[in-house]
Amino acid sequence: MAAHGVRADGFGGQGRARTLCAVLVAGVACAVLAAAGALPALGAAYAALSLHLEDRFHTQEPGPPARIALGPEGRDIRFAGAIGAGTAARLAALLAIHPEVTRIHLTSEGGLVEEATAIGDLIAARGLATYVPDYCVSACTLAFVRGAERYLVTDGRLGFHAPYDPGLFGQVVQADASAERAAYLAAGVDPAFAAEALAVASDSLWIPEPARLIRARVATALVDTDRFPDSTLDDDPSSAGARAAILGALPLLGALAGRGALAGRGDVLDALAAAYLDGYRAGLPEGAALDRLRAGAARAIARILRGADDATWVATGRVLLRAMRRADPQVCLSIGGAGNLLAAQDILDDDAAATVLARAAGQGAGAAMAAPAAEPARTTRIARDCAGLIAAYAEALARPGAGPILRELASHRGHPTREATALPR
User: Fold this and answer.
1) Are 370 and 315 in contact (CB under 8 A)?
2) How confident is the model at residue 422 (pLDDT cuts 50, 70, 90)?
3) Are 284 and 230 in contact, with CB atoms under 8 Å apart?
4) Angle between helices 14-24 and 43-57 (to 10 degrees)
5) Smallest Cα–Cα separation from 356: which of 299, 310, 423, 424?
6) pLDDT over 70 at 58, yes or no
7) Which one of 33, 76, 290, 298 is separated from 52 by 20 to 30 angstroms, measured CA to CA?
């Protein structure tokens, strides 16, 4: 079976011959052949022998099977992983008992051409839409282009290269691409694009710009993450997968790793991951899931900062002030008026926000989750515009004992006013 998977390594010319020598002939004979320049000339003979030995000894270990699961409300199928032997049959069995399915999410590094073609046939026969929420490369594209509608998330990736047959110990042996060319053309893909895609070396990968994919009729539409149910956890819908996903989406939360439980409510990261996983299982669009994650993370961070000591608040105030000076007016007000470290982290290009959050989180579970103390008397005027808030932070940080004032500034959540001027930097 021809493979069409992504490979980071490749073998060519003398590289293949050296592998052949290591397996088949004695070291002296190999050295003689190399000295005589005979290795590059093996060419087709080597390729045929390599393929024959692979067929006989099966040195290529198959990877884990792809995950194929029905999504919430039964309208979506989530496909994640390599396209191996029997994958199309598994998909056919799931489709047979779920006629309400209208769309398949594809996240795959590729695999066997015959299986990918069969998956494409199933998609076409059912009139399913295809959707790539992250990446679909190599043989996966043969299935994607068979969708009645073909959606690619705005920053998603489709990758192409020529098919190959895996030789002994993984060598790449170029395969005939006529079947792939026919599949692309039958799906309405521009012939020039198909020719260019299949001219890419088998051990390389071409990821075209989205606009090119639309022009070539490979994809029919680019969509934002709020269009379809979240696919973030398709490859690993477990608690560990959810934890990894939220850390990937909000790296600042890494500052809370290993900080333990807070006041009996459990580990902060575990709680956020569980809520994110619940949203995935409920079929929330990815954009809505991320919005909910950010809101939950902001509340957790606010509780942690509530218990921070004055010295930590001075350090936090410096971070917030730097971020406010770089932000647009509306984001500036969120950063300074709500002590929003998440928004600050989005703007700053260092780990200062993570440092102060880790410092606050390490100051004790009880303080972080305790009920807030009585609100102190106002010690500074609460600004209602960004420039005023920046000035108030700068003034507070210039005083000794600024912690209580900064805590007050970061908790008033004032109503923003529109600003027509550029933010001072």
Assistant:
1) no
2) very low
3) yes
4) 50
5) 310
6) no
7) 33
